[in-house]
Design goal:
The protein is α+β, with helices and mostly antiparallel strands. It is about 50% helix and about 20% strand. It has a single domain, classed as Muramoyl-pentapeptide Carboxypeptidase, domain 2 (2-Layer Sandwich), CATH 3.30.1380. It has a four-stranded antiparallel β-sheet with strand order 1-2-4-3. Strand 1 and strand 2 form a beta hairpin.
Length: about 140
């Protein structure tokens, strides 16, 4: 749906502004989803609760995840297959638009979840890398 909106917006406002509008909508929705997920934590947001989102992300065989590690302060894993990247590639979407529609959600979700959660990611499958390496660090205020 958003790819169609992007195509409609491009001739009207240009590709840069169209992409900015799409990015704003995607990241806004992802931040809200992060806040909602944090609110579902019975004892409040923490890394152990956040780590349970990985199972949601795997639903429907959307992602294949390897090397999953969880400690008190760090969650890390590699995404080795991404159905979203495959779908966007099959639709002929540009790398930039595909990244905006899917990959830009990750950091926004983290921002919405808790200000003490940090995400590191070096490259994505959408960008042509063989995998997406994620590292989430729990650094609550006062630490």
């Amino acid at each position: 749906m958003l790819a169609r909106v992007y195509r409609v917006l491009c001739p009207q406002v240009g590709p840069e502004k169209a992409l900015a509008v799409i990015r704003s909508a995607v990241e806004g929705a992802a931040e809200a989803a992060g806040r909602e997920f944090a609110a579902s934590a019975a004892e409040g947001p923490c890394l152990a609760h956040f780590a349970t989102v990985v199972d949601r992300w795997r639903e429907g065989n959307a992602l294949e995840i390897e090397d999953l590690r969880v400690t008190e302060r760090e969650l890390s894993f590699r995404v080795t297959r991404c159905a979203y990247a495959e779908l966007y590639r099959s639709m002929g979407l540009s790398e930039t638009l595909a990244h905006t529609l899917s990959c830009s959600r990750d950091g926004a979700f983290v921002r919405g979840y808790h200000p003490g959660l940090r995400m590191e990611r070096e490259g994505t499958i959408v960008e042509g890398h063989g995998s997406c390496r994620f590292r989430f660090l729990w650094v609550p205020s006062g630490d």
